[in-house]
Specification:
- This is EF-hand domain-containing protein.
- It comes from Xylaria grammica.
- Keywords: Signal.
- It is elongated, with a radius of gyration of 19 Å.
- The chain is 52% helix and 0% strand.
- It contains 5 helices and no strands.
- The chain is an all-alpha fold.
- It starts with a helix and ends with a helix.
- It has one domain.
Length: 99
Amino acid sequence: MRFTISLITACAALAQAGVFSQQTYDDISISGGVAGNAQNEALAVFSALDLNDLANVDKDDLDFLNSVNQIANDAETEAFNPAIEAPPARKPTLSSAAR
């Protein structure tokens, strides 16, 4: 798999300033946890951003979030989707295993 956690973490760690300057991909990921909590988790992760003044979000934060978004989109379209669409592996049956 071309997209490893180390690659994602390394790319995400490039943030230099702004509210996400000390964040990694893992720090802002909401893909785990309790089902049904995604909205609350996202609001907590992004609570440092002034959602009432998005025009003044720090450029470094925008760059960081755009890079994380691109990494996640690439992982989905180039790794996860093909894995889901792949035919299931055939399990040997008792009769085929005895041959």
